[in-house]
Design brief:
endopeptidase fold (from Nostoc punctiforme); 6-stranded antiparallel β-sheet
């Protein structure tokens, strides 16, 4: 129903008080392909988007594949090796997957972290990397050091990406509106904060000499600054697999885009509890709308109309929840309220609940969108699976994974507040 921002928030849009963490060389047993995460055995049955999770442009080659792997949490960030012959991908649970000549230096995938990981950057020699959590905490592995955080800053928009300078003496953070924050020896070369780009920025990558950077938007549109050069994608046509991050090759001759909705995700860490079956069904549907050729808003879940509510009620129906196939999101809230299953916006939802966006259930102007809660983190952050959403053209939306994000920051992250939840 709405153009949702996919996948990416790094820190609150309000003042942060959580202490910065630096954990050196936490060890987890590596998987056979040199990564480590709490992955689960088999992927969901949905079509996903058409890519492999990582796509390369210019002279950036892809290494390995997520085929046959289901992540326990959505992929959120990646970083290249110094030679450009490999890269790391991290999931929200802090699991790290290494491809090509990337080595494994530790992860948080085997421990229970308080807030989801949302960004990653590697040290210049490739012998370490940083993971950054939603609460502003920075986890350092291998030879990575700590240079600061946004813990004492109040931001206009959430931070969505991180990139290190070539000597490791600083880094940039980018906000969802394209605003740039430079720390240490990182220099400012421009931003998209005052541009109307029609979508949200989701990541940043530096040039090989640190005299420029690329930003990427949810649609995979790439914005170059300083000495950065545009290398694609061109043309860039829908359907757009929501793009969460951009990573540059060390030589500056290419870059990779991370597209998590191409990667099967089982949402098992944090565990979904009693809502596991609902979450599994919702996750199985992630991918482009197969019915757009029939007309605007045509979809597999009901008539050709805005269909986020049709999707949510279809998911519940598949798991035995006796709810009508509502087209209006407010009717889902009304159904729950009549049965004492409604929860206020400050409540802690459970996986499998419906999350309702807007200001109230009375009309389409006040109840604007609905999704299925897929994950709930100890800090309160959630990930939702949503139909009729994503960075697609109007009337051609998809089923996407959205988050992790804090419900209190939904206005900044999604464009609308959350007015309630419904327990199935």
């Amino acid at each position: 129903m709405r153009n949702r921002r996919p996948h990416r928030v790094l820190t609150h849009a309000v003042a942060l008080t959580t202490a910065v963490l630096s954990i050196l060389a936490l060890s987890v047993l590596p998987l056979s392909f040199l990564g480590a995460s709490s992955a689960v055995a088999s992927p969901p049955s949905g079509g996903l988007f058409g890519g492999g999770g990582v796509s390369g442009y210019g002279h950036a080659a892809t290494f390995g594949s997520f085929s046959g792997i289901t992540l326990a949490s959505p992929a959120v960030a990646m970083a290249p090796t110094p030679s450009g012959n490999g890269y790391w991908v991290t999931a929200a649970d802090g699991g790290v997957f290494a491809f090509g000549n990337a080595g494994f230096h530790g992860s948080t995938g085997g421990i229970n972290i308080y807030a989801p990981v949302v960004a990653m950057a590697a040290t210049p020699d490739g012998q370490g990397y940083w993971l950054t959590a939603l609460d502003g905490g920075v986890f350092a592995f291998g030879d990575a050091g700590f240079h600061g955080s946004t813990g004492a800053m109040r931001l206009n928009q959430p931070i969505v990406g991180m990139a290190a300078t070539p000597d490791g003496g600083g880094y940039w953070l980018v906000a969802s509106d394209g605003g740039i924050f430079a720390f240490g020896d990182a220099q400012f070369y421009g931003s998209a904060a005052n541009l109307n780009i029609g979508t949200s920025v989701t990541g940043i990558a530096p040039t090989h000499d640190g005299h420029g950077y690329w930003m990427v938007a949810a649609t995979a549109a790439v914005l170059p600054y300083g000495d950065a050069q545009f290398l694609g994608p061109s043309p860039n046509d829908p359907p757009f697999s929501p793009t969460a991050a951009i990573v540059a090759s060390p030589q500056g001759s290419g870059y990779w885009l991370l597209q998590p909705d191409d990667i099967a995700t089982g949402f098992t860490n944090p565990p979904p509890g009693a809502g596991a079956a609902i979450v599994q069904t919702a996750a199985s549907q992630v991918g482009p709308d197969p019915d757009t050729s029939r007309g605007a808003f045509c979809n597999p879940y009901g008539p050709c109309e805005e269909w986020c509510a049709l999707f949510a009620t279809w998911v519940w129906n598949q798991r035995g929840i006796d709810i009508p196939g509502y087209a209006f999101t407010g009717d889902i809230y009304g159904w729950g309220a009549a049965r004492g299953l409604d929860l206020g916006p400050d409540s802690v939802p459970a996986a499998g609940d419906a999350v309702l966006f807007g200001t109230g259930p009375s009309s389409t102007a006040t109840s604007t969108h609905v999704g299925i809660v897929a994950q709930v983190w100890p800090d309160g952050a959630i990930v939702s699976v949503e139909g009729d959403a994503g960075p697609e053209p109007n009337g051609q939306f998809a089923v996407i994974m959205n988050g992790p994000y804090l419900p209190a920051d939904s206005v900044e992250y999604n464009g609308d507040p959350i007015y309630g939840y419904v327990d199935p």
